[in-house]
Write a structure and sequence with these properties.
2 copies of one chain form a homodimer.
Chain A: H1 2-14, E1 18-21, H2 24-31, E2 43-47, E3 53-57, H3 61-66, E4 72-76, H4 82-93, E5 99-102, H5 109-118, E6 123-126, H6 128-136, H7 140-163, H8 170-183, E7 188-189, E8 194-197, E9 217-223, E10 225-227, E11 230-231, E12 234-240, H9 245-264, H10 271-284, E13 296-298, E14 305-309, E15 322-325, E16 328-331, E17 335-338, E18 341-345, E19 350-352, E20 362-363
Helix pairs in contact in A: 7-8, 9-10
Cofactor (chains A, B): Mn(2+)
Pfam families (chains A, B): Creatinase_N, Peptidase_M24
Keywords (chains A, B): Aminopeptidase, Hydrolase, Manganese, Metal-binding, Protease
Chain lengths: 365, 365
């Protein structure tokens, strides 16, 4: 209940009567219970002056208990209005909810309107900033899980490298990778495993398909696993067969850009400065127009979380933050390279969690 | 652009200046472009008196075009405020957006507040009901896709039945099923494939794990595929080896309950009546307390969509509606059975899309 205590302290400091947490990732963070409720209501209500409770579909109560939540649980069934159940329970514990904190980046307008109606037009306070500030600094237990998640991502790239052969399709390679991970106990990937070959690697949002991989292709792998509720996210671009001069040149630029950012990570540097460290290398090499996305994103319970590492984010990094560094160069129809690591900010610099080699690997299976 | 024309007609009828569609499933429905934008802005803005546009991350523009959207596209990059880009573009087309329709069940409070600020406190109108009413009636092209999706779900159960053997784990069975589907071109399941064996089948929300399947188990499969953007969702419970009397009795009750609902489907009957048709059979058999969830849910682009088939939904069914019928009985720690079909309401009755046999299959691999 450590996170609940932190939320209660925040409510006291800010003189807010209650916080209603409904983003499933935040519910997991606060309660230890991970569930995707679809359209049904799942949330944790924390009070300044009363005991918290978890609200979830009736049939998930046993799972919530076995996940370790030992506070109160209120179930609801499909035939009742879950928001009314919430209000009734809240009213029983703390008659006077006048200021209520909500995740404005997650709560939907209809639930917002229901809260407004049921609680009699309370004052709403944004909760995202507080939860982001809590989640962005990983404690040692979280870092250890993220290291393990990154190690599984490294293993996945290893399997991908071993699986490459003339004529195998992207989907077949993807399937082999996921099968190998399942054997190591991985039940969920953190997003759709991406294997892009040849000209397809030059599409930063391309989809794994049935293209047959050929000698001379660069093959881009972008994948990650969910491990104990936390995500990893790695990209490696491998050469299948001998690469040509342009492929080697682009790879070298992206690698230097990636290392420039990794080596610049330390407490105090801003996200924008880090983005610029990488971007400058690519711009100086004349490929600036082909690096079309931000440098990276926070990583933890969500695969994309706070903070966003882009050129206008002036947030200074702090020890305990974990994020991706993933510059890329995409020359449409020709060559695409991205290299992505998961890194943690330490007291003195950086810990790189993903460890698969970054020098261009030439695969000759 | 057929769906866009329907939305424009609705705006004219209701005297609403613009509709802003951001639920990714609704964006797909309206534009043909399916994408998961994560925290980034993706939407279609449709005007009463101007041409619509799609707004998406810059790097997704090529994908949106190749998905067949041939209206205007406005891209945004991570360093700009996407809601400002939206407002600027809207203002250029139609200076006077005073009434705006939004999906209140999807739009987040922070985007709602941004619209309020940028458009100068417009009047907001709920759009969910209209889009639900459009999506709930499937046209012949959609029905055909749903039939194909259901056929792939049938095939998955077939593979599951063939894969059962003494000592194989639930995860291994799941992997074999998904592998076989990938070979038939399925890239996404509509939700996590569920294989539950023995006492685990008695948990309506249990998770596929490493339990070894044994002779005498009932094995519950709940799965579906995404096919051309539409979902299927099937449940079958098979007996691995000879079932005991209690297993057979519970199976028989659930099967009769399922058939009671399926056979009652026709235009005009209400969702509540359908739920009751099934529930009555289970209650009469003395197992009412063990049927702990609604009868079913709408099915289409989303695996759970409008309408919800539960005991207090008085909505009358109409031809073209597609939903699941999935009664279950779960005696904790002992026996669990669920049988689920995807059905379409026809002019005269029902078309059952999923066709895997429902008589208790005894597998003796």
């Amino acid at each position: 209940m450590n996170k609940i205590q932190q939320l209660k302290a925040y409510l006291t400091e800010s003189d807010v009567d209650a916080a209603f947490v409904t983003n499933p990732d935040n519910v997991f963070y606060a309660s230890g219970f991970k569930s995707d409720p679809h359209e049904r209501l799942l949330g944790v209500m924390v009070f300044k002056d009363a005991e918290p409770f978890l609200i979830c579909p009736q049939m998930e109560i046993p799972d919530a208990k076995s996940a370790g939540w030992n506070g109160d649980i209120v179930g609801h069934v499909d035939t009742e209005d879950a928001m009314q159940v919430l209000h009734r329970t809240a009213a029983e514990r703390n008659g006077n909810v006048r200021r209520i904190a909500i995740e404005k980046s997650h709560m939907t307008v209809d639930r917002f309107e229901a809260l407004n109606r049921l609680f009699g037009n309370p004052e709403f306070v944004g909760l995202d900033e507080k939860i982001n500030a809590m989640r962005v600094i990983k404690d040692e237990a979280e870092l250890q899980i993220l290291r393990e998640a990154a190690e599984l991502a490294d293993y996945a790239i290893e399997i991908g490298a071993k699986t490459l052969r003339e004529g195998i399709t992207e989907i077949e390679v993807m399937t082999e990778i996921e099968l190998a991970l399942k054997k190591r106990g991985v039940t969920h990937m953190s997003f759709d495993t991406t294997v892009l070959s040849g000209p397809k690697a030059a599409s930063p949002h391309g989809k794994t398909g049935d293209r047959k991989i050929q000698k001379g292709d660069l093959v881009l792998f972008d994948l990650g696993v969910v491990h104990k509720g936390y995500c990893s996210d790695i990209t490696r671009t491998l050469a299948f067969g001998e690469p040509n001069e342009e492929q080697k040149a682009v790879y070298d630029i992206v690698l230097r850009a990636e290392l420039a950012a990794v080596n610049a990570v330390k407490p105090g540097i801003t996200a924008a400065e880090l983005d610029q460290a990488s971007r400058q290398v690519i711009e100086d090499a004349g490929y600036g127009e082909y690096f079309t996305h931000r440098l990276g994103h926070g990583l933890g319970i969500s695969v994309h979380e706070f903070p966003s590492l882009h050129g206008s984010n002036q947030m200074a990094l702090e020890a305990g933050m974990v994020f991706t560094i993933e510059p890329g160069v995409y020359v449409p129809g020709k060559v695409g390279v991205r290299i992505e690591d998961d890194v943690a900010v330490t007291e003195n610099g950086v810990e790189v969690l993903t460890k698969f080699p970054k020098e261009l690997q030439i695969i000759s299976n």
